[in-house]
Amino acid sequence: MYFPHFSILCTSYIISHKKLFVLIEVIPFGGSIDDQGLTYFVQDDLAETMRVGSLVEVPFRSGLDMAVVTKIDTAETPENLKSIGAFLCSIPLLAPYQVTIIFALSSYYFVHAHQILSLFLSKGLVKYLEKKNFEGLEMRKAPEQK
After folding, report:
1. Quick check: 137 and 125 in contact, CB under 8 A?
2. DSSP secondary structure string for all residues of 62-85
3. Within its chain, how far is the Cα of 80 from the centroid?
4. What is the CA radius of gyration of the chain?
5. What is the pTM of this model?
6. 141 pLDDT higher than 60
7. Helix spans in 17-95 (H)
8. Are 83 and 38 spatial neighbours (Cβ–Cβ below 8 Å)?
Protein backbone atom coordinates (compact mmCIF):
# COMPACT_ATOMS: atom_id res chain seq x y z
CA MET A 1 0.00 0.00 0.00
CA TYR A 2 1.34 3.49 -0.93
CA PHE A 3 1.05 6.44 1.45
CA PRO A 4 2.08 9.62 -0.43
CA HIS A 5 1.95 11.87 2.63
CA PHE A 6 4.20 9.51 4.59
CA SER A 7 6.88 9.46 1.86
CA ILE A 8 6.83 13.26 1.59
CA LEU A 9 7.16 13.53 5.35
CA CYS A 10 10.12 11.11 5.41
CA THR A 11 11.82 12.89 2.51
CA SER A 12 11.46 16.31 4.10
CA TYR A 13 12.80 14.95 7.41
CA ILE A 14 15.89 13.55 5.69
CA ILE A 15 16.48 16.76 3.73
CA SER A 16 16.02 18.99 6.76
CA HIS A 17 18.65 17.06 8.73
CA LYS A 18 21.41 17.09 6.09
CA LYS A 19 24.52 19.03 7.02
CA LEU A 20 25.14 22.17 4.97
CA PHE A 21 28.72 23.05 4.03
CA VAL A 22 30.00 26.55 3.38
CA LEU A 23 31.50 26.89 -0.08
CA ILE A 24 33.52 29.83 -1.28
CA GLU A 25 34.50 30.90 -4.76
CA VAL A 26 37.93 32.50 -5.00
CA ILE A 27 40.29 34.06 -7.51
CA PRO A 28 43.85 32.85 -6.83
CA PHE A 29 46.58 35.35 -7.64
CA GLY A 30 48.51 32.65 -9.51
CA GLY A 31 45.83 31.83 -12.09
CA SER A 32 42.20 31.37 -12.91
CA ILE A 33 40.03 29.70 -15.50
CA ASP A 34 38.53 32.24 -17.90
CA ASP A 35 36.22 34.65 -16.09
CA GLN A 36 35.25 32.31 -13.26
CA GLY A 37 36.56 31.62 -9.78
CA LEU A 38 37.51 28.30 -8.21
CA THR A 39 35.38 26.67 -5.51
CA TYR A 40 36.62 25.40 -2.12
CA PHE A 41 34.87 24.45 1.08
CA VAL A 42 35.39 26.07 4.47
CA GLN A 43 35.32 24.52 7.94
CA ASP A 44 32.52 25.75 10.20
CA ASP A 45 34.83 27.61 12.60
CA LEU A 46 36.17 29.85 9.81
CA ALA A 47 32.89 30.38 7.97
CA GLU A 48 31.48 32.94 10.40
CA THR A 49 34.26 35.49 9.86
CA MET A 50 34.60 34.94 6.10
CA ARG A 51 33.43 37.82 3.86
CA VAL A 52 33.54 38.61 0.17
CA GLY A 53 36.89 40.30 -0.42
CA SER A 54 38.69 38.42 2.39
CA LEU A 55 42.12 36.98 1.77
CA VAL A 56 42.62 33.20 2.05
CA GLU A 57 45.31 30.68 1.16
CA VAL A 58 44.18 27.83 -1.08
CA PRO A 59 45.78 24.73 -2.59
CA PHE A 60 46.38 25.63 -6.22
CA ARG A 61 48.32 23.62 -8.77
CA SER A 62 51.26 22.10 -6.89
CA GLY A 63 51.36 24.44 -3.89
CA LEU A 64 49.50 27.05 -1.88
CA ASP A 65 48.49 30.42 -3.30
CA MET A 66 46.80 33.50 -1.90
CA ALA A 67 43.30 34.17 -3.19
CA VAL A 68 40.46 36.65 -2.75
CA VAL A 69 36.99 35.38 -1.78
CA THR A 70 34.44 36.37 -4.43
CA LYS A 71 31.34 34.45 -3.36
CA ILE A 72 30.06 32.60 -0.29
CA ASP A 73 27.37 29.94 -0.59
CA THR A 74 26.12 26.77 1.09
CA ALA A 75 25.55 23.30 -0.30
CA GLU A 76 24.52 19.95 1.11
CA THR A 77 27.60 18.00 0.08
CA PRO A 78 30.82 19.25 -1.43
CA GLU A 79 31.78 16.97 -4.29
CA ASN A 80 35.53 16.39 -4.49
CA LEU A 81 36.32 19.89 -3.27
CA LYS A 82 39.47 20.87 -1.45
CA SER A 83 39.48 22.84 1.76
CA ILE A 84 41.13 26.25 2.06
CA GLY A 85 44.63 26.19 3.49
CA ALA A 86 44.36 29.23 5.79
CA PHE A 87 42.31 32.33 6.46
CA LEU A 88 44.79 35.21 6.19
CA CYS A 89 42.83 38.43 6.76
CA SER A 90 39.29 38.89 8.07
CA ILE A 91 39.08 42.48 6.84
CA PRO A 92 37.97 42.47 3.18
CA LEU A 93 40.63 43.85 0.85
CA LEU A 94 38.04 44.37 -1.91
CA ALA A 95 34.44 45.55 -1.72
CA PRO A 96 31.69 43.38 -3.25
CA TYR A 97 31.13 45.90 -6.07
CA GLN A 98 34.83 45.64 -6.97
CA VAL A 99 34.54 41.86 -7.22
CA THR A 100 31.54 42.30 -9.53
CA ILE A 101 33.56 44.71 -11.69
CA ILE A 102 36.47 42.24 -11.88
CA PHE A 103 34.22 39.53 -13.33
CA ALA A 104 32.46 41.98 -15.67
CA LEU A 105 35.76 43.26 -17.07
CA SER A 106 37.14 39.75 -17.35
CA SER A 107 34.12 38.62 -19.33
CA TYR A 108 33.95 41.75 -21.50
CA TYR A 109 37.65 41.78 -22.45
CA PHE A 110 38.08 37.96 -22.59
CA VAL A 111 40.93 37.88 -20.08
CA HIS A 112 41.43 35.69 -17.03
CA ALA A 113 39.93 36.99 -13.79
CA HIS A 114 43.29 36.86 -11.95
CA GLN A 115 44.76 39.31 -14.47
CA ILE A 116 42.00 41.84 -13.74
CA LEU A 117 42.41 41.16 -10.00
CA SER A 118 46.07 42.19 -10.25
CA LEU A 119 44.93 45.63 -11.48
CA PHE A 120 42.90 46.11 -8.30
CA LEU A 121 45.20 44.40 -5.85
CA SER A 122 48.75 43.44 -6.81
CA LYS A 123 50.35 40.38 -5.27
CA GLY A 124 53.30 42.55 -4.18
CA LEU A 125 50.98 44.81 -2.18
CA VAL A 126 49.32 41.81 -0.53
CA LYS A 127 52.72 40.33 0.39
CA TYR A 128 53.73 43.71 1.87
CA LEU A 129 50.52 43.84 3.93
CA GLU A 130 51.09 40.25 5.04
CA LYS A 131 54.65 41.10 6.14
CA LYS A 132 53.22 43.98 8.20
CA ASN A 133 50.63 41.52 9.62
CA PHE A 134 47.83 43.55 7.95
CA GLU A 135 48.29 46.37 10.47
CA GLY A 136 46.58 49.64 9.66
CA LEU A 137 43.65 47.99 7.94
CA GLU A 138 40.28 48.75 9.41
CA MET A 139 36.68 48.23 8.43
CA ARG A 140 35.19 51.36 6.88
CA LYS A 141 31.62 51.99 5.98
CA ALA A 142 30.82 52.60 2.33
CA PRO A 143 29.97 56.26 1.61
CA GLU A 144 26.28 57.01 1.63
CA GLN A 145 24.84 57.37 -1.85
CA LYS A 146 22.29 60.03 -2.70
Report:
1. no
2. TEEEEEEEEEEEEES--SSPPBPS
3. 17
4. 19
5. 0.76
6. no
7. 44-47
8. no
